[in-house]
Predict the structure.
Amino acid sequence: MKKPVEVVAEGLGHPEGPDVLPDGRVVLANTYASEVTVWERGKGTSTYAYTGGGPNACMLGTDGFVYVTQCPTVGAWVAPERRQPSIQRAAPDGTVEYVATEADGMKLTAPNDLTFGPDGRLYFTDSGDWDIVARPHRGYICVIDTDGSCHVLEELEPVYPNGIVAEPDGSIVWVESYTRRVVRRSPSGSTNVIHELPEGHIPDGFKIDADGNFWITTFGSGGLDVLDRDGNHVDFLETGGVVLNCTFDGTTLYVCDFGTTETQDPNSTPMFGRLLKVDLGVKGMPLFRGAIAVA
Protein backbone atom coordinates (compact mmCIF):
# COMPACT_ATOMS: atom_id res chain seq x y z
CA MET A 1 0.00 0.00 0.00
CA LYS A 2 1.23 3.50 -0.86
CA LYS A 3 -0.29 6.75 0.36
CA PRO A 4 0.79 10.41 0.10
CA VAL A 5 3.56 11.08 2.66
CA GLU A 6 4.57 14.59 3.75
CA VAL A 7 7.65 15.40 5.82
CA VAL A 8 6.36 18.05 8.24
CA ALA A 9 9.43 18.27 10.52
CA GLU A 10 13.01 17.04 10.38
CA GLY A 11 16.29 17.42 12.22
CA LEU A 12 14.75 15.72 15.27
CA GLY A 13 16.67 13.45 17.63
CA HIS A 14 15.13 9.98 17.74
CA PRO A 15 11.47 11.11 17.64
CA GLU A 16 9.14 8.68 19.39
CA GLY A 17 5.67 8.13 20.84
CA PRO A 18 3.62 11.02 19.34
CA ASP A 19 0.18 12.29 20.32
CA VAL A 20 -2.14 14.99 18.98
CA LEU A 21 -3.30 17.82 21.23
CA PRO A 22 -6.89 19.13 21.02
CA ASP A 23 -5.72 22.20 19.06
CA GLY A 24 -4.10 20.02 16.39
CA ARG A 25 -0.49 20.39 17.51
CA VAL A 26 1.56 17.21 17.66
CA VAL A 27 3.71 16.40 20.68
CA LEU A 28 6.41 13.75 20.54
CA ALA A 29 9.15 12.36 22.74
CA ASN A 30 12.37 13.76 21.28
CA THR A 31 14.74 11.35 22.95
CA TYR A 32 18.18 12.67 21.98
CA ALA A 33 17.09 16.22 22.82
CA SER A 34 15.83 15.09 26.26
CA GLU A 35 12.53 16.88 25.70
CA VAL A 36 8.96 16.67 24.58
CA THR A 37 8.85 18.53 21.28
CA VAL A 38 5.73 20.12 19.82
CA TRP A 39 5.06 20.67 16.12
CA GLU A 40 2.54 23.16 14.76
CA ARG A 41 1.81 23.70 11.09
CA GLY A 42 3.15 27.05 9.93
CA LYS A 43 5.33 27.44 13.03
CA GLY A 44 7.48 24.31 12.97
CA THR A 45 8.86 22.68 16.11
CA SER A 46 9.63 24.01 19.56
CA THR A 47 10.17 22.68 23.07
CA TYR A 48 6.99 21.73 24.91
CA ALA A 49 8.83 20.59 28.04
CA TYR A 50 12.41 19.70 28.93
CA THR A 51 12.31 16.32 30.69
CA GLY A 52 16.01 15.53 30.86
CA GLY A 53 17.04 11.93 30.36
CA GLY A 54 15.59 10.03 27.43
CA PRO A 55 11.83 10.45 26.96
CA ASN A 56 10.52 7.67 24.75
CA ALA A 57 6.75 8.21 24.39
CA CYS A 58 4.13 10.72 25.45
CA MET A 59 0.35 10.88 25.76
CA LEU A 60 -2.10 13.56 26.78
CA GLY A 61 -4.24 13.01 29.87
CA THR A 62 -7.67 14.41 30.66
CA ASP A 63 -6.01 16.68 33.24
CA GLY A 64 -4.04 18.57 30.57
CA PHE A 65 -0.73 16.92 31.49
CA VAL A 66 1.34 15.10 28.88
CA TYR A 67 2.44 11.78 30.42
CA VAL A 68 5.93 10.62 29.44
CA THR A 69 7.95 7.40 29.65
CA GLN A 70 11.43 8.27 30.89
CA CYS A 71 14.10 5.83 29.68
CA PRO A 72 17.60 7.28 30.30
CA THR A 73 19.26 4.89 27.82
CA VAL A 74 18.05 4.09 24.31
CA GLY A 75 20.16 1.47 22.59
CA ALA A 76 23.81 2.41 23.13
CA TRP A 77 22.85 6.05 23.70
CA VAL A 78 22.98 7.37 27.27
CA ALA A 79 21.40 10.70 28.23
CA PRO A 80 23.98 13.35 29.14
CA GLU A 81 21.69 14.56 31.92
CA ARG A 82 20.17 11.43 33.38
CA ARG A 83 16.81 11.08 35.05
CA GLN A 84 15.32 8.19 37.02
CA PRO A 85 13.63 5.54 34.89
CA SER A 86 10.05 6.61 35.47
CA ILE A 87 6.76 7.92 34.27
CA GLN A 88 6.84 11.72 34.23
CA ARG A 89 4.21 14.26 33.29
CA ALA A 90 4.62 17.69 31.75
CA ALA A 91 2.27 20.61 32.33
CA PRO A 92 1.39 23.05 29.54
CA ASP A 93 3.75 25.58 31.13
CA GLY A 94 6.67 23.15 30.70
CA THR A 95 7.08 22.06 34.32
CA VAL A 96 7.77 18.36 34.78
CA GLU A 97 7.14 16.05 37.74
CA TYR A 98 7.43 12.35 38.51
CA VAL A 99 4.34 10.14 38.50
CA ALA A 100 5.98 6.76 39.25
CA THR A 101 9.52 5.45 39.73
CA GLU A 102 8.70 1.92 40.88
CA ALA A 103 6.02 -0.76 40.58
CA ASP A 104 5.11 -2.91 43.58
CA GLY A 105 8.37 -1.84 45.23
CA MET A 106 10.50 -2.70 42.17
CA LYS A 107 12.42 0.20 40.66
CA LEU A 108 11.57 0.80 37.03
CA THR A 109 14.35 0.10 34.53
CA ALA A 110 13.39 1.32 31.07
CA PRO A 111 9.80 2.57 30.60
CA ASN A 112 9.16 2.58 26.88
CA ASP A 113 5.59 3.11 25.62
CA LEU A 114 2.32 3.93 27.35
CA THR A 115 -1.43 4.05 26.86
CA PHE A 116 -4.49 4.90 28.88
CA GLY A 117 -7.06 2.15 29.04
CA PRO A 118 -10.85 2.44 28.96
CA ASP A 119 -10.71 2.17 32.78
CA GLY A 120 -8.69 5.41 32.96
CA ARG A 121 -5.58 3.63 34.22
CA LEU A 122 -2.18 4.18 32.59
CA TYR A 123 -0.52 1.05 31.16
CA PHE A 124 3.12 0.97 30.08
CA THR A 125 5.93 -1.33 29.01
CA ASP A 126 9.18 -1.49 30.98
CA SER A 127 11.49 -2.98 28.38
CA GLY A 128 14.63 -3.78 30.36
CA ASP A 129 18.08 -3.62 28.82
CA TRP A 130 18.20 -3.24 25.04
CA ASP A 131 20.98 -5.83 24.67
CA ILE A 132 19.16 -8.92 25.91
CA VAL A 133 21.89 -11.23 24.60
CA ALA A 134 24.80 -9.67 26.50
CA ARG A 135 22.71 -8.50 29.45
CA PRO A 136 19.51 -10.55 29.74
CA HIS A 137 16.87 -8.60 31.62
CA ARG A 138 13.21 -9.30 32.22
CA GLY A 139 10.61 -6.99 30.76
CA TYR A 140 7.39 -5.92 32.47
CA ILE A 141 3.90 -4.74 31.69
CA CYS A 142 2.88 -2.25 34.37
CA VAL A 143 -0.17 -0.20 35.25
CA ILE A 144 -0.71 2.95 37.28
CA ASP A 145 -4.07 3.21 39.02
CA THR A 146 -5.84 6.56 39.07
CA ASP A 147 -4.78 7.00 42.71
CA GLY A 148 -1.11 6.91 41.64
CA SER A 149 -0.25 3.39 42.84
CA CYS A 150 1.83 1.44 40.31
CA HIS A 151 1.74 -2.32 39.83
CA VAL A 152 3.29 -5.09 37.75
CA LEU A 153 0.74 -6.87 35.54
CA GLU A 154 3.09 -9.21 33.68
CA GLU A 155 6.69 -10.30 34.23
CA LEU A 156 8.19 -11.43 30.94
CA GLU A 157 11.28 -13.25 29.76
CA PRO A 158 13.94 -11.06 28.07
CA VAL A 159 11.79 -10.23 25.05
CA TYR A 160 11.92 -6.39 25.07
CA PRO A 161 8.22 -5.42 25.26
CA ASN A 162 7.86 -2.20 23.33
CA GLY A 163 4.69 -0.57 21.93
CA ILE A 164 1.40 -0.97 23.82
CA VAL A 165 -2.26 -0.18 23.07
CA ALA A 166 -5.63 -0.66 24.80
CA GLU A 167 -8.73 -2.11 23.16
CA PRO A 168 -12.34 -1.14 23.91
CA ASP A 169 -13.05 -4.36 25.83
CA GLY A 170 -10.20 -3.61 28.24
CA SER A 171 -7.66 -5.93 26.62
CA ILE A 172 -4.07 -4.73 26.47
CA VAL A 173 -1.93 -5.55 23.43
CA TRP A 174 1.83 -5.14 23.22
CA VAL A 175 4.61 -5.99 20.78
CA GLU A 176 7.94 -7.61 21.62
CA SER A 177 10.81 -6.32 19.54
CA TYR A 178 13.18 -9.29 19.71
CA THR A 179 10.61 -12.06 19.31
CA ARG A 180 8.57 -9.97 16.82
CA ARG A 181 5.43 -11.19 18.59
CA VAL A 182 2.13 -9.39 19.11
CA VAL A 183 0.59 -10.38 22.45
CA ARG A 184 -2.89 -9.74 23.86
CA ARG A 185 -3.77 -9.74 27.56
CA SER A 186 -7.50 -10.10 28.16
CA PRO A 187 -9.35 -8.39 31.04
CA SER A 188 -9.32 -11.76 32.81
CA GLY A 189 -5.51 -11.78 32.76
CA SER A 190 -4.97 -14.53 30.19
CA THR A 191 -2.42 -13.86 27.45
CA ASN A 192 -1.98 -15.22 23.95
CA VAL A 193 0.30 -14.53 20.99
CA ILE A 194 -1.85 -13.39 18.09
CA HIS A 195 0.89 -12.88 15.48
CA GLU A 196 4.62 -13.19 14.83
CA LEU A 197 5.99 -10.72 12.31
CA PRO A 198 8.47 -11.84 9.65
CA GLU A 199 12.24 -11.42 9.80
CA GLY A 200 13.31 -7.80 9.33
CA HIS A 201 9.98 -6.46 10.60
CA ILE A 202 10.92 -5.57 14.19
CA PRO A 203 7.89 -4.04 15.90
CA ASP A 204 8.29 -0.77 17.76
CA GLY A 205 5.07 1.23 18.24
CA PHE A 206 1.51 0.94 17.02
CA LYS A 207 -2.05 2.26 17.13
CA ILE A 208 -5.53 0.94 16.35
CA ASP A 209 -7.90 2.09 13.61
CA ALA A 210 -11.68 2.38 13.91
CA ASP A 211 -12.13 -1.19 12.64
CA GLY A 212 -9.82 -2.61 15.29
CA ASN A 213 -6.83 -3.15 12.98
CA PHE A 214 -3.29 -2.66 14.31
CA TRP A 215 -0.92 -0.31 12.44
CA ILE A 216 2.53 -1.40 13.60
CA THR A 217 5.70 0.55 12.86
CA THR A 218 8.29 -2.11 12.07
CA PHE A 219 11.88 -0.95 12.44
CA GLY A 220 13.96 -1.78 9.36
CA SER A 221 11.01 -2.60 7.11
CA GLY A 222 10.49 0.91 5.74
CA GLY A 223 6.88 1.05 6.79
CA LEU A 224 3.99 -0.28 8.87
CA ASP A 225 2.51 -3.77 9.01
CA VAL A 226 -1.28 -3.86 9.29
CA LEU A 227 -2.95 -6.70 11.19
CA ASP A 228 -6.62 -7.29 11.86
CA ARG A 229 -7.86 -7.82 15.41
CA ASP A 230 -7.39 -11.58 15.14
CA GLY A 231 -3.75 -11.15 14.13
CA ASN A 232 -4.12 -11.84 10.41
CA HIS A 233 -1.79 -9.82 8.18
CA VAL A 234 -3.86 -7.37 6.11
CA ASP A 235 -1.45 -5.01 4.37
CA PHE A 236 1.85 -3.12 4.50
CA LEU A 237 2.11 0.68 4.31
CA GLU A 238 5.29 1.91 2.63
CA THR A 239 6.71 5.11 4.13
CA GLY A 240 10.46 4.68 3.70
CA GLY A 241 12.90 5.59 6.44
CA VAL A 242 13.20 3.91 9.83
CA VAL A 243 9.77 4.18 11.44
CA LEU A 244 9.45 4.13 15.23
CA ASN A 245 5.91 4.99 16.36
CA CYS A 246 2.71 6.62 15.16
CA THR A 247 -0.64 8.16 16.10
CA PHE A 248 -3.91 8.88 14.33
CA ASP A 249 -5.60 12.24 13.91
CA GLY A 250 -8.86 11.41 12.22
CA THR A 251 -7.87 9.86 8.88
CA THR A 252 -4.34 11.24 9.11
CA LEU A 253 -1.50 9.13 10.47
CA TYR A 254 1.52 10.86 12.00
CA VAL A 255 4.64 8.70 11.95
CA CYS A 256 7.91 9.26 13.80
CA ASP A 257 10.86 8.29 11.62
CA PHE A 258 14.48 7.97 12.77
CA GLY A 259 15.71 8.87 9.29
CA THR A 260 19.16 7.28 9.24
CA THR A 261 21.73 6.06 11.71
CA GLU A 262 24.62 7.38 9.63
CA THR A 263 26.75 10.27 10.87
CA GLN A 264 30.17 11.53 9.80
CA ASP A 265 31.20 12.34 13.36
CA PRO A 266 31.38 9.22 15.57
CA ASN A 267 31.18 11.39 18.70
CA SER A 268 28.02 13.20 17.67
CA THR A 269 24.39 12.24 18.14
CA PRO A 270 22.47 11.77 14.87
CA MET A 271 19.70 14.36 14.57
CA PHE A 272 18.06 13.21 11.36
CA GLY A 273 14.68 12.20 12.76
CA ARG A 274 11.51 13.26 10.98
CA LEU A 275 7.80 13.60 11.62
CA LEU A 276 5.78 12.27 8.69
CA LYS A 277 2.15 13.00 7.86
CA VAL A 278 0.33 10.30 5.90
CA ASP A 279 -3.06 10.99 4.34
CA LEU A 280 -4.25 7.51 5.10
CA GLY A 281 -7.97 7.70 4.39
CA VAL A 282 -8.51 5.27 7.28
CA LYS A 283 -9.99 6.58 10.51
CA GLY A 284 -8.15 5.94 13.74
CA MET A 285 -9.80 4.70 16.90
CA PRO A 286 -9.96 7.58 19.40
CA LEU A 287 -7.45 7.05 22.18
CA PHE A 288 -8.62 6.47 25.71
CA ARG A 289 -7.67 9.18 28.17
CA GLY A 290 -7.28 9.43 31.90
CA ALA A 291 -5.56 11.21 34.77
CA ILE A 292 -3.31 10.00 37.56
CA ALA A 293 -3.19 11.50 41.04
CA VAL A 294 0.27 12.58 42.18
CA ALA A 295 0.99 13.03 45.86
